[in-house]
Automatic annotation (TrEMBL):
Pfam families named in the record: Molybdopterin, Molybdopterin_N, Molydop_binding
Domain Molybdopterin oxidoreductase N-terminal: 34-74
Top-level taxon in the UniProt lineage: Bacteria
Domain Molybdopterin oxidoreductase: 78-555
Protein name as annotated: Molybdopterin-dependent oxidoreductase
InterPro entries: Asp_de-COase-like_dom_sf, CT_DMSOR/BSOR/TMAOR, Molybdopterin_N, MoPterin_dinucl-bd_dom, Mopterin_OxRdtase, Mopterin_OxRdtase_prok_CS, Prok_Mopterin_Oxidored
Cofactors required: Mo-bis(molybdopterin guanine dinucleotide)
Organism: Campylobacter californiensis
């Protein structure tokens, strides 16, 4: 397998990876190492300009996204200077907030903008206290253990009085709450190695999981080592030893790669499928009774549900067939195959990014327990194989590097703002589940349920967002725009004129990785190495590194020294590296001195962990469940959780149960007859890189593509390339049609992350002409337990758009 032929059409155009030593050096050019969420890179700089990037040699599958790095660096959408919205500059916190998105922006100096920010934070702390400032800022900012804008934001605000935080993520809102409850660990528990799967698994079941697509990226820098494992799995498929089955309304990149059988389930009904599979295992005696008795608690409670004892409805394959659209015969066959062969289940996180998302993973763990293969070679399940480009790869003996911290909270000293206050806990206890942002802004004082507690919404006057794009990631854009009109001050810090920048009062230009010094690990699970992110070019325009931006704001409060602890960016990189050196000694690794590491640009760990390629999750627990209890209250797998049941939630009763989703094909109407899913994009990281040349690779008629089944296209008179008006109860967008039977009939698919481009910016209800899917989605929590977002739950209509195609404006600068 040629590694760069990995995915046809996916890695196309990426040239061979050079060894640094063989790099050709021109007189006016230099090569530096840098990194992104999609790989470790070597950048060529000529006359102070970034001209090219190439993947480093230890990247197992460099993605096409590398091709966008230069394009994004110099794109017209870069924010070059600090800007303030005209109305805000004039009237400050008394400005007309409905003008957000409509007003002109005025360029100001850094000195002036820092003074405004200082005055506004100080005013809010003085008049309303820390609970008036929201810094729960979420998002996938760039790489670097220092330039983590969210940690730096909190560090700065901690030194100046505190703030309201968020908890949880958009990625794992429900699974991060459920896995500890059921399995007593977090969802990133070490997974059975992909090598072990390739050797022993006979049936690999992907449920809402497109790992070949999603493992292109990593929260740190991916070495894409899981792709080595995928190749081995594919070889086992070719040899006829392993079969891949993919339960997904969409035939995915992974399905094509593994030549999987794609079972096109009705969206949001996987729990019904799995419950019926449990029923069938029970009815046929195929379930592992011994495993259930020895390693789990609460089976009887679940049994009463699936047998119908508790509610009179038998959850048998006939019942599930009507809900899932999968035939009774197929459900039975699938169940029997899984029981009779060595089966590994890989759920994606899409299962929990939907209404009652807690139930998806609860059902996976329950079904897996009944199959009884947990802890055995090639069997069981993993909750996060698709989560980043290294999960399940064989680990090397390596170390990670610490990063900047939020520091110690200090009370703001009203009046002076000087460093005279005592250290004291001033953190707000009003942190929200992250996807409750609009609800919080719209309903101050209201209280909601969350995982057995109550969360009271703060009255937010100032939002500071750094390193995220809420105007892409959050659901129900129109509700959000209304919510965005509530605070007095909104600050957004980003390299680009994203919708979040356009909807702010103050816009601060951050720079990207190649414009600053930093350090990172490569391959958080594979432990492939360490990389120096070297400043190759000067920050574009007057942009600055996040670290420098927050240092200057802390300075305004007289707290610069506390913020920096006397270090500059490279000083921090050295400080972090030297701590890694200490850890390394304990593991018998001799890391080079910092200067030598920095000079070379990376360090690769080469020693493989012994037995790592045969790692099996939960093996110790299965071998000795008394000695190696799980972290649950019972020490076992909790098929039923007494603790969750004790919360008395009507939408989450403490075991895997199918609840009817807010919107699904089972309650579709004539007005909104199709189910919309919004998976992660192939050639972007969310909204990142939408403003680059890569747009040409996937856009249709300058819009985000919508996948439509040929039968639906025919009934609507839509053909490939048409402009399509997509509407839901919440709003309207335009997309470009791709007619394909990859997608199930009555299901349409629009990837998340197309830049929001409303016809009338700032106007509630305005049509997005470019295809931001979150104009259509529902802003509701999964349940009272986790309150995760439900992006994959929405009904829509589609129509051929016949008017004049509106111009795309979002890739030019806003009014100035
Ligand atoms: N419908 C739907 N919606 C979804 C999802 C879905 O599946 N469907 N998925 C959800 C999920 S899982 C997630 S994680 C979220 C992702 O949501 P986000 O993480 O908010 O999305 P990104 O587009 O990655 O936004 C990151 C922003 O950081 C900026 N940035 C990059 N580098 C830097 C830097 O060094 N400094 C600063 N200050 N800024 C920087 C980028 O320009 C970009 O605007 O979306 C969620 N939304
Ligand atoms: N290229 C790329 N990779 C990424 C990201 C990116 O933006 N771009 N983002 C990263 C991040 S932050 C995250 S959180 C992960 C997300 O990883 P996931 O949450 O696993 O990804 P999704 O794309 O939301 O969904 C995966 C699959 O679920 C299917 N699906 C949707 N609804 C249903 C359903 O009801 N039932 C079933 N069975 N299937 C369903 C979709 O068709 C899709 O193929 O990906 C990461 N990887
Ligand atoms: Mo995510």
């Amino acid at each position: 397998m040629q590694r760069r032929n990995f995915l046809k059409g996916m890695a196309l155009g990426v040239t061979a990876a050079p060894m640094l030593s063989s790099a050709k050096i021109l007189s006016n050019s230099k090569k530096v190492t840098t990194a992104t969420h999609w790989g470790p890179l070597e950048a060529t700089i000529e006359d102070g300009k970034l001209t090219e990037v190439e993947p480093l040699s230890f990247d197992s599958n460099p993605p096409l996204m590398n091709k966008a790095v230069r394009s994004r660096t110099y794109d017209e959408t870069r924010v070059l200077y600090p800007y303030v919205r005209e109305g805000f500059l004039k009237d400050r916190h008394k400005s007309d907030t409905t003008m957000r998105g409509k007003d002109k922006f005025v360029r100001v100096s850094w000195e002036k903008v820092n003074q405004i920010i200082y005055e506004e934070i100080a005013r809010c702390q003085r008049d309303f206290g820390p609970e008036s400032i929201y810094a729960g800022s979420y998002g996938w900012f760039g790489i670097g253990n220092l330039n983590n804008p969210q940690t730096l934001l909190k560090r700065m605000l901690n030194l100046t009085g505190g703030f309201v935080d968020s908890k949880g993520t958009y990625s794992t809102g429900a699974i991060s709450v459920v896995t500890p409850i059921v399995m007593g660990t977090n969802h990133y528990f070490r997974h059975t190695s992909l090598d072990n799967i390739a050797k022993h698994t006979q049936t690999l079941v992907l449920i809402g999981c497109d790992l070949v697509r999603t493992t292109q990226i990593n929260w740190d820098v991916p070495a894409h080592k899981s792709y080595d494992g995928f190749v081995k799995i594919k070889n086992s498929v070719k040899e006829g030893k392993l079969k891949v089955i993919s339960i997904n309304p969409l035939r995915t990149d992974s399905d094509k790669f593994f030549d999987a059988k794609n079972i096109k389930i009705i969206p949001n009904t996987d729990v019904a499928l799995m419950v019926a599979m449990c029923y069938h295992l029970y009815e046929t005696g195929l379930y592992d009774k011994n495993f259930i008795e020895r390693y789990t608690v609460g089976f009887d409670k679940f049994k009463d549900y699936f047998t119908g004892k508790s509610d009179g409805v038998k959850k048998d394959p006939a019942w599930a067939s009507k809900i899932t659209g999968i035939s009774e015969k197929e459900i039975k066959e699938l169940t029997q195959t899984m029981a009779k062969t060595t089966t590994m289940i890989m759920p994606g996180w899409s299962l929990q990014r939907q209404d009652h998302g807690e139930m998806g993973n609860w059902a996976v763990f329950t079904l897996t327990a009944m199959l009884g293969q947990i802890g055995k070679n090639g069997g069981g399940c993993g909750a996060s194989y698709h989560g980043d480009g290294n999960v399940g790869s064989t680990e090397r003996v390596g170390v990670s590097i610490p990063g900047i911290t939020v520091g110690k909270p200090m009370t703001y000293n009203a009046g002076t703002g000087n460093d005279t206050s005592s250290f004291e806990q001033s953190f707000s206890n009003k942190a929200i589940p992250v996807a409750k942002i609009s609800d919080m802004l719209l309903n101050p004082g209201k209280s909601i349920d969350y995982n057995g507690t109550k969360v009271e919404f703060a009255d937010i006057k100032l939002i500071y967002w750094a390193g995220g794009n809420p105007m892409h990631h959050h659901q129900d854009r129109n509700k959000m725009i209304k919510a965005w009109q509530k605070p007095e001050v909104i600050i957004n810090q980003d390299p680009y004129w994203t919708a979040s920048s356009r909807m702010a009062d103050i816009v601060l230009p951050a720079c990207t990785e190649i414009e600053r010094d930093d350090i990172s690990v490569v391959g958080s699970e594979s432990k492939t190495g360490l990389i120096a992110l070297k400043k190759g070019i000067e920050p574009v325009g007057e942009s600055k590194a996040d670290y420098d931006i927050f240092t200057d704001i802390a300075d305004k409060f007289g707290r610069k020294d506390l913020f920096t602890e006397g270090r500059d960016a490279k000083g921090w990189a050295k400080y972090f590296y030297e701590q890694a050196m200490e850890q390394a000694v304990a593991k018998g690794i001799e890391l080079p001195k910092f200067e030598a590491f920095w000079e070379k640009g990376y360090y690769e760990f080469t020693k493989m962990e012994q037995g790592g390629d045969d790692y099996v999750a939960f093996k110790e627990f299965v071998e000795d469940p008394i000695e190696n209890q799980l972290g649950t209250p019972s020490g076992r797998i909790e098929i039923f959780s007494k603790k969750v049941a004790s919360y008395g939630y009507d939408d989450c009763e403490g075991y895997a149960k199918f609840y009817e989703p807010a919107e699904w094909l089972g309650n579709a109407t004539k007005d909104f007859p199709y189910h919309l899913i919004s998976p992660h994009p192939r050639h972007r990281l969310h909204s990142q890189l939408n403003n680059t040349i890569l747009r040409k690779v996937y856009e249709v008629n300058e819009r985000e593509p919508i996948l439509i089944n040929p039968e639906n296209a025919k009934e609507k008179g839509i053909v490939d390339g048409d402009l399509v008006l997509v509407s839901s109860k919440r709003g309207k967008i335009l997309c470009g049609a791709v007619v394909t039977d990859d997608v199930r009939k009555d299901v349409v698919c629009v990837a998340e992350g197309a830049w929001y481009d409303p016809q009338d910016p700032g106007e509630i209800g305005s049509m997005c002409v470019h295809g931001d899917v979150n104009v259509l989605t529902i802003d509701k929590g999964t349940s009272k337990l986790a309150q995760g977002n439900i992006s994959h739950t929405a009904l829509v209509n589609i129509e051929k758009f016949t008017g004049t195609a509106p111009k795309i404006k979002v890739f030019s600068k806003p009014k100035m």
